[in-house]
Design a protein that fits this description.
Its cofactor is Mg(2+). It is found in: Cytoplasm. By secondary structure, the protein is mainly α. The chain has a single domain, classed as Ribonuclease III domain (Ribonuclease iii, N-terminal Endonuclease Domain, Chain A), CATH 1.10.1520. Helices cover about 75% and strands about 0% of the residues. The longest helix has 24 residues. The radius of gyration is 14 Å and the shape is globular. The mean pLDDT is about 90.
């Protein structure tokens, strides 16, 4: 990424927008390598990882394990508290905000060029969801 970009200063919803795409790509790659099956089945498997409910539950596990750095916690809080003008689909607003917070951290790490850290977070998310299943 462009090093002149200060990812921490970006709108947390913009970070969540990027984080959503980064998580989705990681999950899809993980699933296709693991399950080589039909697209509909792949989509169903992916929703276990990327639904707002799953992301909120995963965030709780990560927080309980003190996984985040201080800078990441700052982004997380900004992402959770950001006022979104879109309505949460199939979930309550608190779950949606927790999901957005996790996506904001992913987007922040990605745009900040912290590739090892974002990869570690993405792998940890996959592990947490698979352990729940």
């Amino acid at each position: 990424m462009d090093k002149s970009l200060n990812a921490k200063l970006l709108n947390p919803l913009s970070l969540a927008y990027v984080g959503d795409a980064v998580l989705d790509q990681h999950v899809r790659t993980h699933i296709i390598l693991k399950q080589q099956s039909k697209p509909n089945r792949l989509h169903q498997a992916a929703t276990r990882f990327v639904s707002a409910k799953s992301q909120a539950a995963t965030l709780e596990v990560l927080l309980a394990g003190d996984w985040f750095t201080e800078a990441e916690l700052d982004v997380l809080k900004r992402g959770r508290n950001a006022k979104s003008y879109t309505k949460a689909k199939n979930t309550d607003i608190q779950t949606y905000r927790k999901s957005s917070a996790l996506e904001a951290v992913i987007g922040y790490l990605y745009l900040d060029g912290q590739h090892e850290r974002v990869t570690a977070l993405l792998n940890k998310i996959v592990l947490i969801v698979e352990e729940r299943s």
